[in-house]
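re: that complex we talked abt at group meeting.

here r the seqs, copy pasted straight from the sheet so there may be weird spacing, ignore it
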Amino acid sequence: MDSHCLQISMEAHKVVPPPRKSTLVKLRDRLKETFFPDDPLRQFKDQPWQRKLVLGAQYLFPVLQWSPNYSLSLFKSDIVSGLTIASLAIPQGISYAKLANLPPIVGLYSSFVPPLVYAVLGSSRDLAVGPVSIASLVMGSMLRQEVSPSGNSLLFLQLAFTSTFFAGLFQASLGILRLGFIIDFLSKAILIGFMAGAAIIVSLQQLQSLLGIRHFTKQMGLIPVMSSVFHNTHEWSWHTIAMGFCFLVLLLVARHVSMRKPKLFWVSAGAPLVSVIISTLLVFAMKGQNHGISIIGKLQQGLNPPSWNMLHFHGAHLGLVIKTGLITGILSLTEGIAVGRTFAALKNYKVDGNKEMMAIGFMNVVGSFTSCYVTTGAFSRSAVNHNAGAKTAVSNVVMSVTVMVTLLFLMPLFQYTPNVVLGAIIVTAVIGLIDIPAACNIWNIDKYDFIVMLTAFLGVIFISVQQGLALAVGLSIFKILLQVTRPKTVMLGNIPGTDIYRNLDHYKEAVKRPGFLILSIEAPINFANITYLNERILRWIEDYEEEEENIKQQSSLQFLVLEMSAVSNVDTSGVTLFKELKQSLEKKGVELVLVNPLAEVIEKLKRADEGNEFTRADNLYLTVGEAVASLSSAMKGSSSNMEEGTQAIVSHY
Amino acid sequence: MDSHCLQISMEAHKVVPPPRKSTLVKLRDRLKETFFPDDPLRQFKDQPWQRKLVLGAQYLFPVLQWSPNYSLSLFKSDIVSGLTIASLAIPQGISYAKLANLPPIVGLYSSFVPPLVYAVLGSSRDLAVGPVSIASLVMGSMLRQEVSPSGNSLLFLQLAFTSTFFAGLFQASLGILRLGFIIDFLSKAILIGFMAGAAIIVSLQQLQSLLGIRHFTKQMGLIPVMSSVFHNTHEWSWHTIAMGFCFLVLLLVARHVSMRKPKLFWVSAGAPLVSVIISTLLVFAMKGQNHGISIIGKLQQGLNPPSWNMLHFHGAHLGLVIKTGLITGILSLTEGIAVGRTFAALKNYKVDGNKEMMAIGFMNVVGSFTSCYVTTGAFSRSAVNHNAGAKTAVSNVVMSVTVMVTLLFLMPLFQYTPNVVLGAIIVTAVIGLIDIPAACNIWNIDKYDFIVMLTAFLGVIFISVQQGLALAVGLSIFKILLQVTRPKTVMLGNIPGTDIYRNLDHYKEAVKRPGFLILSIEAPINFANITYLNERILRWIEDYEEEEENIKQQSSLQFLVLEMSAVSNVDTSGVTLFKELKQSLEKKGVELVLVNPLAEVIEKLKRADEGNEFTRADNLYLTVGEAVASLSSAMKGSSSNMEEGTQAIVSHY
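got the structure back, here u go
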């Protein structure tokens, strides 16, 4: 029976090249995997053409999916949530517009049109659309590099709309060209570091309104802002500071309450509007503006004026505008997609990344025609929307209607709203972006990611938002390249009583097989790492031989077994590695054995190996176990190995 | 007995996290693998300090390794090879200097000092040091962008020496900082395409001297050169053309002969010098210069004048000079290292890449102090050197002495040498750089590499040398990133009669296991690919379920088995993938099972998985076989699966 067991496990299985595929077929598959991993057309498969038409329409306009079976009960919950986010959207809209150095009213415009567009095109049910802090900050700071918002406000406005247009164009084309994976390069680590940094930058900017300083630096960095704060102490207005402090406390408390009890979401949701109302009344009653409390001032009434005639596609600032569009576009896109995915996962429905990009992009293009600046799905507001029980995108419609009413009739009421309250609202909103526990978590899991995060954070605070980001992205790409240029090679050993071979450092019980050096290569083999792999493998052999000398082993190295299960690919440089290895091994009288080369790999090796040097049947095996078994039985070495060899196999049974 | 076999293979082996290592230890190991893969200090291990000193000196000055046992017989063969390469180096030196728009004599200077330096520092025995075509071409063309070599020849010369200095500095620091792997990014494919392109560019430049055109374009590209050739047909000098044609034929024949019979290496090696002598005599006899045959003209005599006072480290052109230094530096380095490795492999000795870089770099720095421009180990000349039987770097010394003699006494003889012959020599030299078979080979093995090669080739011809290179490098890095953002996921099946599981598309005999979806992921899981992997895996599941519906299978999916042997690493984003998968699978009532997570991976998963959701002992297995065995025995599904499950295992014995 033993012999029976033995015989079976000795008969090794052939490694065959995969079934032939034409280059075109391969190319098609590769392209499909690259651009259509989600296989969007699967639902159209074998359907009648009318059905296909309907499905197509629904694909383009998700509204058609849910509107047919929209019910009153759904509408009820959508109304509640819609009004809730409206009460949040109005003060935030005004505040974020100021953050972007734009007239406050633009913030309200941006909370009116885009939500309507999204309601038709968007596939997320919880996204609350509107301007967001980070995109506003970045747009403001980037445009301010070339044009002063106070000095030449019209041009500044035109540039803002134009960059919004480019942002939308960029987002939509990312979706259409199925290049959504580009935003994946803003990794979790980067985003956490970046958002924390941005939150700090944003809060620092608010010191102007919170302290009532009139002459404030135009720069963003930590140092310039701080110095300008403490060089203008004489401008600090104590009324403003007192007022700001009270409302900041009030808002933070509200936020804290809602965080403790999600049921009480409306506390933090309503707080901003309440504080706006109270503070406005206060200022109005006590003529605050005479006590040095700066107020918004007159705002014109009426709906979004058209702005397509304000778009600039030529002139000196085109470069800046495009750059701003790209960066704000990718930032707002990242936030929007992330929010969408988060809540989709919570409620267990799917949002199609590329479709979302088209929706958000188109929304911004339309926005740029109707006096809106960059908008997307905001984290904070969507959370409120979700807690308030939003069921469909109708809540966005409700919000935008409420904003419309405000624009038409309620604008005069904001005339006396003090800027200090807006500052307090922004600070409370962005403080949530600083996520300490997540940072600690990253430190625990992956130190390199932590460095990336830190780079993003410090880069944003001390250099600039876009450069900080670029630096962090560069670092994380460098890590990928480093993993490829310096792939791990580990020595495998036999786990006693089995024919399993595993990493010797990892599984302490694993034992070496005399005469065999078994290495597993853990990366694709290509131009970037052949030199390293060649050197490293030869060093493994030297170490092996040294060791043997030390322990006065007779049995010398006879087989170098390369376990290739983790080598997902080789390129033309990669195949030369095997030729060179083969040569240098022959000089040492060592045989090269390859185990489980994957489909593409064996294919390329066969093609490259005319001399049939390293892809002969007798040095290709399907598992290390089989390789060792059939080789040690054929081993010419001292009989002792022979016995050990077989004995180990027998012990398996 | 069966039951015995069965029982053993059923008892599964635990996946344990690897033995604890402190972050510092890990960091140290990582750094060592990155910067010291060849472990240069191993030879110093446990040696007495005097020995260590000797070894250290020998490490810095390889000359000390071979000089002690240098013999007369070695010297004999070195003399022969030395004289042979000298006869090649002198005409080539003059020609390449003209290629770089430098005075011809600089080419000879560069064949005198650097070889001496290399003989002391270099570790290759076959490298023949001197100026090379590509570096000369690139330096000439880049510097010409800002300074005209004819108009302001002194400044041009100064810039050339300065860029040589920077090239050397860059090369040496690459070696000292152990960043040698940077040159690996010039993959084989890129080099083949680039060299072919460069060869064509260089040959095109020679049309000026071959046709005797006086007013030639200053540009490099194919189109401008061709147009300038055919717009100046009236300048074509028929004497020149006739002469050029004859010598070109002569040289090509000689080259062909030596390629057929390596024994006759001296034919092609001597041919250039012979043609220089003949042509010079011809011109001198028939007063050729009066028939419109342009000649080199007067050359001053004497050895290299010092040039450190000519180095420019400030002023308008510093940027250009540094850029030129970097590019020529990396190009010449690549050629030098490649040549060194090639012949080291042939003769089976080792050249230490980083050490070579220091040697070449230092050689160029010294060169820049002594009126030499960028030099390195030349392909053609080293081949001749090797064939001529060079044994040590002494052949370089012999060559440099010969050049010295020429510089001291023979310069006047070159006065009447016609430029057309130099042109012919260059063309013959660079034609060898066009390697059609290698290109075909690349096409056969890897289509993407072929595209990269083509990019380099066309880029160099039509855009510019450096941009063509940059483009190609960018493409090949993009490929690496693409492989990471779109990793392969393949479905595994059981190879009948074994507990081996392999790719179903690859091994047609493999069969699916009912109730199991077994996927293998073939790349590290990180921020760049979690979104894709998530979508892709869910699609696998959908496909699986559809299929079952079609074939009216009762047994529904119960286990998703992820074979992770090829997942060399995860990062913080990577671990979230498993959390999300776990959640979405639970909704489908499918269990997530991980097989053979590698050391680093299981470590990070454990750390990230506080809830112990996806790293419980009962969903971690060492092999797919064991996972399937013990899970199907525990399977709650229809008894049929149960039987199949066990039956398959029994069939193994």
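couple things i noticed - Residues 1-10, 637-653 of chain B have pLDDT under 50 and may be disordered. The longest helix of chain B spans residues 318-347.
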